[in-house]
Every structure is written in structure tokens, then in C-alpha cells.
Amino acid sequence: GHHGNAILSKYPFDRCENINVSPVTWASRSLLHGVIRLPGSGLETHVVCVHFGLIGMERRRQLSSLCERIDSHVPHDAPLIVAGDFNDWLGRAEHQFHDRLGLQEVFRATHGRNARTFPAWMPFLPMDRIYYRGFTPISCERLSQSPWQLLSDHTPLAASFAL
Description:
Blueprint: E1 13-20, E2 30-37, E3 44-51, H1 56-73, E4 80-85, H2 93-101, E5 104-105, H3 106-111, E6 128-133, E7 136-142, H4 148-151, E8 157-162
Parallel strand pairs: 3-4
Antiparallel strand pairs: 1-2, 2-3, 4-6, 5-6, 7-8
Helix pairs in contact: 1-2
């Protein structure tokens, strides 16, 4: 849809699903949930990509749907990454993710604060996040140089983890 998101992986997906969390038909908001079996570990790694709405009530419902999805489909000891455009400039999801799901935010863990990612031409709002559990963060950076600022109105984040 026009609010698209994607998960790219150098490893094949065991399974994946696109879950529609749009409250209206004209805005395509979804959760992409993929499961990857990392070579050498045998562990199922769950990856979820999100693109939440701009309105607070919509985001709260989408956050609730995401938490329910993770609670029902991801074992509590499974490695998990949840990333995307949360449109959460106030950081309201952070406590629920930590308390309910045991997730940490990687830019905050490596830099002590959330990354400013919007707008790409002069980022000042922290809208995008990469949350994780079951990994050790190695690094996280905001990709602000060319060509990244030309590809989206948000500055992307890139993180490295050790399992």
C-alpha cells in the first residue's frame, strides 16, 4: 500500500504474514511479521516491521494489536526485532514495549537517547525505532547521507546485533 513497509533479509523466511491494522480503508497500515531461522543457531528469529498512524487513538490500537500479535505468536525466549515508523515522537510506546514485551530500543541503548529521524532533510522528531530482545546490540546509526535522505521523508536507522 501507499504506507508501505518491507523486511529485507539475506536469509530465507520460514514464514511471514501481513496483518492489516488500518482503521480506515484509504490508509494501508500494517504489521509485517516474518520468521527467519538463522544459520548455525537453529533459533527462530522473529522480525516485525510496522508503520503506525499519525493519530494518537489509531497508534494506541495499532500498538495493542502489535503487543497481542507478539504475545500470541512469538515465544517469550525467542529473539525478536520490531522496527519501523512508529510515529511516536513522544515515546509513549517505550514503557509498554519494555514492561509487557521485554523490548529495548537499540539507538537508545547505544547512544542514550532516541534517534531523530523526521523530516529527513533536517531530522528533529524521533519517529522511527528498532526494538529488540534476545540480542546484544553492537551499533546503531542514523543513515543521513546521500542517497538516504532522498529515498524517504524519514531518515533510516541501521543496527547491528550479536545473537
